[in-house]
Amino acid sequence: MIELLTQHGEAILFYAFALAAVVSAVGVISLRNPMYCALSLLVTFLAVAALFLMRHAELLGMVQLFVYGGGIMVLFLFVIMLVNLHRLREVRLFNEQVPIALVLGVLLVALFGWVFLSLPASAPGDSTALVSLDGEVVGNAKAVAWVLYTEYLLPFEIASIFLLVAMIGAVVLGRRD
Amino acid sequence: MFDWAHTIPILSIVCYLPLVGAVAILAFLRGSSASTVRRFATGVAGLDFLVSLPLWWAFQRDGELFQFRESAGWIEAIGARYEFGVDGIALLLVLLTTFLGFLAFLSSWSAIQEREREYYIFLLLLQTGMLGVFMSLDFFLFYVFWEVMLVPMYFLIGIWGGPRKLYAAIKFFLYTLVGSVLMLLGILALYFFNGDGLLAWPGLGGDATFSVLRFHEIASQIPPDLQFWIFLAFFVGFAIKVPMIPFHTWLPDAHVEAPTAGSVILAGVLLKMGTYGFVRFSLPILPEATRELLPWMIGLSIGGILYGALVAMAQKDVKKLVAYSSVSHLGFVMLGIFALNPAGLNGGILQMINHGLSTGALFLLVGILYERRHTRLISEFGGLSKVMPAYATVFLIITMASIGLPTLNGFIGEFTILVGVFERSWVWAALAAFGIVLGAAYMLWMYQRVFFGPVRHEENQGLRDLNGRELACVLPLVVLCFWIGLYPKPFFEILEQPVEYIVQRVDPGYAEALAAARPGELPAVVAGSGE
Amino acid sequence: MPAFDLREFLLLAPEILLAIGGLALLLAGSVGRGVPGRVAASLSLFFLVATALLVLTVEEVGPEPRLILGSSFVLDGFARFFKLVILAGTALTVLISVRFVDDGAYRAGEYHALLLLATTGMMFMVGGFNLVSIWIALELMALSSYILAGYFKRETRSNEAALKYFVLGALSSAILLYGASLLYGATGELRLDLLAAALPEAMVTGRLLVPTGWLMLSVGLLFKVAAVPFHVWTPDVYVGAPTPVTAYLAAASKTASFAILVRIFVQGLPTLLPDWQIVIAAVASVTMIWGNLAALTQTNVKRMLAYSSIAHAGYVLLGLLAASVIGLWSVAFYLLAYTFITLGAFAMVVVLERREYAGEEVSDYAGLARRAPWLAAAMLVFLLALTGIPPTGGFVGKVYLFAAAVEAGWTWVAVIGVLTSAISLYYYFSIAVQMYLKESTRDTPEPLGSPALTAAIATCVVATLVLGLFPGPFIEFAQAAGLPLP
Lengths: 177, 531, 486
Prior knowledge:
The structure holds three protein chains of three kinds.
Chain A: H1 2-30, H2 34-54, H3 58-82, H4 98-118, E1 131-133, E2 136-138, H5 140-149, H6 153-174
Antiparallel strand pairs in A: 1-2
Helix pairs in contact in A: 1-2, 2-3
Chain B: H1 4-7, H2 10-28, H3 34-52, H4 54-58, E1 67-75, E2 80-86, H5 88-111, H6 116-135, H7 139-148, H8 150-160, H9 165-194, E3 197-198, E4 201-202, H10 212-217, H11 224-241, H12 250-257, H13 260-285, H14 287-292, H15 294-313, H16 318-337, H17 342-373, H18 384-387, H19 389-403, H20 409-424, H21 426-451, H22 468-486, H23 489-506, H24 508-517, H25 522-528
Antiparallel strand pairs in B: 1-2, 3-4
Helix pairs in contact in B: 2-3, 2-6, 3-5, 3-6, 5-6, 5-13, 5-17, 5-22, 6-7, 6-8, 6-13, 7-9, 8-9, 9-11, 9-12, 11-13, 12-16, 13-16, 13-17, 13-23, 15-16, 15-21, 16-17, 16-20, 16-21, 17-19, 17-20, 17-22, 17-23, 19-21, 19-22, 20-21, 20-22, 23-24, 23-25
Chain C: H1 13-30, H2 37-58, E1 66-68, E2 73-75, H3 77-104, H4 108-127, H5 131-149, H6 156-187, H7 192-205, H8 209-224, H9 233-240, H10 243-268, H11 273-296, H12 301-322, H13 325-352, H14 368-371, H15 373-387, H16 393-407, H17 411-437, H18 451-469, H19 472-479
Antiparallel strand pairs in C: 1-2
Helix pairs in contact in C: 1-2, 1-4, 2-3, 2-4, 3-4, 3-10, 3-13, 3-18, 4-5, 4-10, 5-6, 5-10, 6-7, 6-8, 6-9, 8-10, 9-10, 9-12, 10-12, 10-13, 11-12, 11-17, 12-13, 12-16, 12-17, 13-15, 13-16, 13-18, 13-19, 15-17, 15-18, 16-17, 16-18
């Protein structure tokens, strides 16, 4: 037992977090109390953050934790508390397309299972956590920053316009006039 | 002497004059009265006929195959060019088009009483489209005219047609469009074969071109299986237009619902575009496939002759009867063409002209009757020869022309076709001859019921006879029917060279054998049949 | 690390100018009561024209494509062509929007700002050379489109359209991104050319990862171009969205989506050519068949045009299917022609449309030839072009799409194409029947023109006819937009 844990500890942790992420994601769309939904979403975010950390993507993990698990979650909870969403209890969550959706969903899961099984087995921990830039070994944050502000500078800027558009959209569609 | 035939773009002028007229009506005659528009449009059509008339004399019978050539770059990127030119066959059809077109305008004066401006615009556009089809020597250009022409015809049937006009118009458009898009695929296959090849067939590596003459040249290099597919594609396009059975079902609807001028042009010119397509493209470009599929073509032609005649016999409506007789007559034309020998082709092509004249005249005459009585049912008439003697006389002459009485044009065409067909097989000739008998039967029976006997209906007592304008419409047709019937030599002369060209391409063996066995006799055979 | 030159930003001057234009309109709109519709439209037009001129001057394209900004973008004839087509489409959209936005009393500044920003996204899309940059640009376009679709927020149908579009669009974007990430997982590359180079090996080591990845990528892209079976969002969104926005979605948005579809397939997945050809052949066939059949029964013009735009996506796929020189330029040429034709047709819908979505039925066109002969003639030209009848640009475009399919040996798909396009005549001409063959009644809406609308329609008619009669220069222009083929 101990041996199993030491040998496959990382794999076991991975599956545990992955399962948590999936189960809680299902919870987000199937629970009726909006508060529970939000909390499920939080669990998903946390589980994903843990997965990032396990892949030595510390920066991403932290960003996930702060931005999604922190900021965005809090906003969600505020909205849920301020807006009366109790009617959701009476609304049907899924419509009549459930059977066909189920069939397609199962097929999709089967497809991914197949893909997964076809992949060559590789130990999850064999990649290096360290990134090298011009031969110099640097940390995670520096590496991300380097790529983000050179190769992906323009996409990064486009993302800022994207967020601006999202904001305009919220204002334009939400404003009473 | 001023060589106008090679300096003036005479074909373009003939082709676009109606278009210019249509634009002029649209732009300058906005507030004018209907009668001004009517006179102007008819004037344009008449002028167009006059302009096209000199072609008959300027065309050198023994000169180049295609004359009055015009050539200019158009879409360089894909090798499509602006190529105009006519051989004897196209020349006859161009003249037929301008001539019948003019008569169609003239006949519309009293028949069309609403939305006249639009009517004449569409009619003029139709003229341009049809003329372009006969003049194009570039396949792309040809196709553009071929399709453009559908639109005005659609509106002519749809707006000024009979009770079921909407149905008839869309049926006409859909049928012909389906046929032509498949033909387009065939054209594209030829285009690629001439270029870099397609599918499993390596191409000839030639420059990208849609030139019809180039396709004629490479005909012998097209592999038989490719020819087969292209032939099928062309066949659908042309056979729907002709129409051959079993693609004929649009025709009676379109004919019955179309206004008189529409029917005249439909029967007189439009249907010829299908047979012209076979003569110009299928035969010379796809000789092997033509020979391979000959039994089918012959079978469908003879089937058309007999079927059309039998159905015509059962019709209660004069116009519908004439429409079905077209199916029968076009079957004759196809039979002649697919005899693949000079006599058959000569006859087939001449019969195209004949059918245009006599059926055009029949539709005009039926239209005149309809304007007076607003019915075309045979049972509504009887004894008209007493009330309208001139009308009855003209109708009789045209009926005789249609059933092939000697001294009239129908006889020359049918006889020459039979000569050609007989050369191939006496069985076919016998079946076709039976078709002639049937044709005589339904036409004469119809004539008898409409014109002879007592006047059974009170309304028919007071029917006016032909007036001057109507007489002016039909008399030229009658004259032409007699001319071709009595002295067809000029027509055969002008057809001699192109027909020989086609026979050489579609059946080289035949042409050689003929030249070897009976040197110099070929024109005599052809011309002699009429004398 | 790749050399990185900030001066390369200068080469993006057109996109940057357009983005600045959008932001400027936004600012102007936030002052006081906002800018009047005409002013906003004129400003957008100014920015669009200036951008187009910049594209023509700054982005001089050599024979070799030029990768810029760490290879996340590319300057080539392909990008340049599509940028100009998209700008033209947007300019026409601006023209047909003027009266519409005024009538509804919606804020014009934000509307035009969103249009310009969406167009910026499209320009980045067609110039993207990296799955990430393409995706983020696509999202910029998509998000702006969602908002524009719901811009008439007092109308329920517009809300419905926006919501449907948003939910399904986000789902498809997610699928697209997932597919891209699987490909990245298999190859470790996001740049299209490197991805193409790494794929053969990855197909061995990554096994099913590669097929799953590109299939999901395709699903996402085919959703964006509204190909069957990923089209279900189209009719509702097209009907619900404000008509100028619908036109914009059907023309510019579709063009940009096709551009990236072609670029990703041809430049990113050339090794999978035989595989994706089968998928594209199947999708193109069902798209042409279903789009046309479903359109047959429609009586609402906007819904009919929505199905027609689905069908046209099928035709364009023929060019991609051929994956040949002719195929690629015929896609480019067709999208150019289609932009003018579609915008013209939708401009005609705007002419007859009233508030509360009146004037959208086919029967509302009754007797138009009598009341407004020129407008009817213009609509007739668009209908002929949509059917593919000469002498219109739609004809030349279709001929060459079919030609490409025939040449490449996909004759059966071409046969489906020609037959369905003949069938399409039936529903397109149901409008012509109303215009020319029926009489108007008292309830028939009067056509309401405006100078801007007239200008837009006139431009579209002229363009459609010129593309049909003298397509030579435009074909050469489209030929310059070719991509290197595998």
